Amino acid sequence: MKYFLIGLFTGFFHVLNAQTVDSSALARLTDAVVELQNSELMRHGTLAFCLKPVAGIPVAGTPVAGTRPLVALNHQLSLPSASTLKLVSTASALAVLGGDYTYKTYLEYDGQIVNDTLRGNLYLRGTGDPSLGSDRFKEYPNATALLNRWVNVLRKANIRYVQGRVVADASFLDDKALADSWIWGDIGNYYGAGVQGLNFNENLYRVFFRPGRNVGDPAEVIRTEPTLPYLNLTNRVTTGPTGSGDQVIIYGSPRSNEALLTGTVPRGVPTFSVKGALPDAAQYAAYALRESLISAAIGVGGGPMVLEAVSTRKSTRTVLDEYASPTLRELAQQTNWWSINLYADAFLKTAAKKLSGKSEFDDAVETLTAYWRGKGADVRGFFIKDGSGLSPSGSLTAQNLVEILNAATKNNAFPDFYESIAVLGETGTVRNLGKGTRAAGNVRAKSGSIGGTRAYAGYVTTRSGERLSFSMTAHKYDPKSSRLVGQELVRLMVLMADL
């Protein structure tokens, strides 16, 4: 079946001034979109494409008028978003909370300090910070440095013994760390880590293997980082060919201390590490703090525990330490540059809690859908399931995404949002794309890839300085042609930059 762009040129000159966009360049882009959909690459798949002026926003002194797409194909079909959904999550969080927003984490106690003994519990209370203990931010402490900081706080308070327990208070967010629609093969791996009211070390751990000498030999687990003595690993990983990379799948479930490791690691290296999702990051935070205290000769009477619901018992706590995360603008940039699922899902929940008081995935999705509808975006076909795009059943239309991108330009947080998106040919996951073309250094794009879907979305600036928003998704293409499909999508971005 052949496809044709609908309503492409009808009323075109009512959308942009004839001198703003080169009509021949627009025709080349139009032809390329149709050709890709009609190609062998997409014989059994769908290309959704939407390119639209950022209405009412003056760029280079010239306001763009009109809201009709310049180019649109299958733009009202709801397809998997993959990680382009992170644009919605970051835009939402920045709009609702502001770029200066920081997550706070508190070290607290209840009871009394008598001489050098805390007659009570020690609490680590989170507010959903996904970056707590991360090593991404050079000016902020990683997990080890944070644990040392909290040990020193107790020393300065002259606490040498905690009579009670070390409690991880994760009650700020709901206790549903994972979306129901995430698949079994994802949730034990680092990119499937759940989001909690208290996150730590990006909710991941590393497993180090010693590959065998020959392909097919067992690969030995030699350690985990951090050390997790309570986590039982069933290892079925074998040795793969040299250069085959990480082919390990970790099967685990939330709050379970059992994990199954399958797949292969490459031969020819002394050790090889893969990343897994902590089954309960709050539990690990309490465990790690308790172990750090004991190692520093500060005794702890009780074991670690997790508080997931707001207690009905009134307990007065005293704050010993308050830690602030990097600003939201910094976190959003890392999210969009490197496609961090944990951060995007935390943003979804945090923004929704601010707006409605509810943070469960389904409630959060409903809240943010209503938010963007209220900003004038067409959200028909907006059927997302999470904030990261990890869910294969979550979907949206190219028109949804473009209209949300346009609506985001009207918010005071837009400069932070725009700067958070990677630049083609320069930064983030798109740093190697489009080099030597007009798209490099021009197009701001978030990439996405999931189960037979590749997508890009963001902004492009025309030769005359007008800003346009775009979304493109190739769905169910020939699975052997992923690289070629990616090249064709980059070609479309290059043609957009030539407008």
- Poorly predicted runs of 5 or more residues: 6-19, 56-66
| Percent range for β-strand residues | 15-25%
Tell me the CATH architecture of the largest domain.
3-Layer(aba) Sandwich
Global geometry: globular
Q: Which structural class is indicated by helix and strand composition?
A: alpha/beta
CATH-derived topology of the largest domain: Beta-lactamase
> What's the number of structural domains?
3
CATH H-level homologous superfamily name of the largest domain: DD-peptidase/beta-lactamase superfamily
Number of strand segments = 25
Strand order of the largest sheet: 4-1-25-24-23
From the N-terminal CA to the C-terminal CA, the straight-line distance is: 29 Å
Helical fraction? 25-40%
Average of per-residue pLDDT values = 93
**Largest sheet entry:** 5 strands, antiparallel
CATH class of the largest domain: Alpha Beta
Count of discrete alpha- or pi-helical segments spanning 4 or more residues: 12
Seen as an oligomer or otherwise, the chain set is: single chain
Rg value: 25 Å
Structural overview:
- One of its GO terms (biological process) is proteolysis.
- GO terms for molecular function: serine-type D-Ala-D-Ala carboxypeptidase activity.
- This is D-alanyl-D-alanine carboxypeptidase/D-alanyl-D-alanine-endopeptidase (Penicillin-binding protein 4).
- Its EC number is 3.4.16.4, 3.4.21.-.
- Keywords: Carboxypeptidase, Hydrolase, Protease.
- The structure is a single chain.
- By secondary structure, the chain is α/β, with parallel strands linked by helices.
- The chain folds into three domains: 12-98 and 329-497, DD-peptidase/beta-lactamase superfamily (Beta-lactamase, 3-Layer(aba) Sandwich), CATH 3.40.710; 104-175 and 280-326, D-Ala-D-Ala carboxypeptidase C, peptidase S13 (D-tyrosyl-trna(Tyr) Deacylase, Chain: A); 184-277, no CATH class.
- It contains twelve helices and 25 strands.
- The protein has helices at 12-15, 23-37, 86-97, 143-156, 184-187, 281-295, 328-338, 341-356, 361-374, 398-408, 414-420, 482-497, and strands spanning 46-53, 58-59, 62-63, 71-73, 79-80, 104-109, 112-114, 117-119, 122-125, 161-162, 166-169, 204-210, 220-225, 232-235, 238-240, 247-252, 258-266, 272-277, 299-300, 304-307, 318-324, 395-396, 444-450, 453-461, 467-475.
- Strands 4-1-25-24-23 form a five-stranded antiparallel sheet, with helices on both faces.
- It starts with 11 loop residues before the first helix and ends with a helix.
- The relative contact order is 0.19.
- Mean pLDDT is 93; it is low at 6-19 and 56-66.
